[in-house]
Amino acid sequence: LMTKATEMGIPCGSIWFDPIVTPVVNVEANQAKPCLEFMSTLEDIVPGCKSAVGLSNVSNGAPTHLRPILNRTFLMMLMKYGLHSAIVDAFDAELIKIARGEMPEMVDLVHRVMDGERPNLSSLSEEEIKCVKTVRVLTGEILYSHSWLDI
What we know:
This is Pterin-binding domain-containing protein. The protein has helices spanning 2-7, 32-45, 67-79, 93-99, 104-114, 126-138, and strands spanning 16-17, 50-54, 85-87.
């Protein structure tokens, strides 16, 4: 693909990759972790190319009250790997704050958990605990259920 694009004079910066994001509720076909793995290698594989995701796909089928935490956490996880663009719920004010870089402490916490840190949950706020637990679901460390935040 890249060879043909180069032959046609299409610069890498004009090529967008949109990895598949399937709902986390579909345990057998959850593509959140493979999507993250792909994003972590994209810059090495095709330097200069761009990335975009349909962010809310990850939470499709989850109860309405759980969708925002899945979407927000997945966005923070993808940001670790340089996500360029996402189709998002523009009415989710928290998600927009994350996208604008206005929640760096929460983003940092999510990235540390992705890197293997096991924070003491008793020292975290309720929102931080939700993010930590959601990282564990999205990375496949724990199995998704509608009650993952209660465990």
